[in-house]
Amino acid sequence: MSRYLYLYLCPRVKLSNIFTMLEYAYRLKSFRILDGMVECDSLQEFYERLAMILAGMILNRNRQGLYREYREQVDKLPYIRGQLNIRHQLVKPWEVGFSCHYQEHTADIEDNQILTWTLNRILYSGLCSDRGLPVIKKAYRSLLSQTSLIPLDPGRFSSRVYSRLNQDYRPLHALCRFFLEQCGPGYEVGDHSMIPFLVDMPRLFELFVAQWLRTYLPPEYEITPQERVEIGENGELTFSIDMVLYRKRDETAMCVMDTKYKSAATPTQADINQVVTYAVAKGCRDAVLIYPSSNIRPFKETIGDITVKTLAFPLAGNLEEAGKRLVEKLISNL
């Protein structure tokens, strides 16, 4: 296997637009340092620069002091700390030391373990050069001296709760989620053994469009991404709809939307069947297929009571303009 960072770029995508997609998809609106990091000659450099940004943010947080919490500890100590376990001492009086229950103010908590595990995966990827490795290793060593190295599932990151004490961890964890979610197996002929990475562009496109619509839709509408719909008395059949657009005042489902990361001129029959099924399941009359290329031809057909339309969110040009056109067409067609 060779060392690669895989990005499935079916339509033509500007590298700078990938940063913008990441910014929206992973809710990094306050992460403005991304604006100056878009001139990359290769995908490996793109990965390395993003890793250096993360390492720099971690070093900055470490200088300010890592977030800590009090944790219950039970240990045998040469001195008394906290509460002494009298029963244990009476049962085993010959043992040297004291069995104590105490609280420790520690940085070895999940907030910081996420950072440690992510930097570990970045270092073992083999995708960073001598330019980026020193700062990444420095950040990793600063964490490893205070935290445990524990494998963590990035699926848990989205439900984390933040307080005023650890609010600045939110963009850090968002970046960590990106690195860990896009780390996966892939194979290519080569002469090196290494862990390859897969950046799931269809999933990134879906997250990006959902967050864009959440940001720019008129206030009377709201978006629910990845809505699960169960069919049958016991939920024998389950659908996961990319996005459902609701009208807030009466919580009416206005339309279902499905993103298709493919460069196509017309929607396939499978695409249409899928989105019509979603619309029937939600009881709405509009279904929209969203493609990342302007190559898609305008399509509007009524199937039974369901009107199916195609919309484009082209990634090759100006995302701000393309996103505004998408919102305008979506609302005007409802």
From TrEMBL:
<dbReference type="GO" id="GO:0016787">
    <property type="term" value="F:hydrolase activity"/>
</dbReference>
<dbReference type="InterPro" id="IPR011604">
    <property type="entry name" value="PDDEXK-like_dom_sf"/>
</dbReference>
<protein>
    <submittedName>
        <fullName>McrBC 5-methylcytosine restriction system component-like protein</fullName>
    </submittedName>
</protein>
<dbReference type="Pfam" id="PF10117">
    <property type="entry name" value="McrBC"/>
</dbReference>
<dbReference type="InterPro" id="IPR019292">
    <property type="entry name" value="McrC"/>
</dbReference>
<keyword id="KW-0378">Hydrolase</keyword>
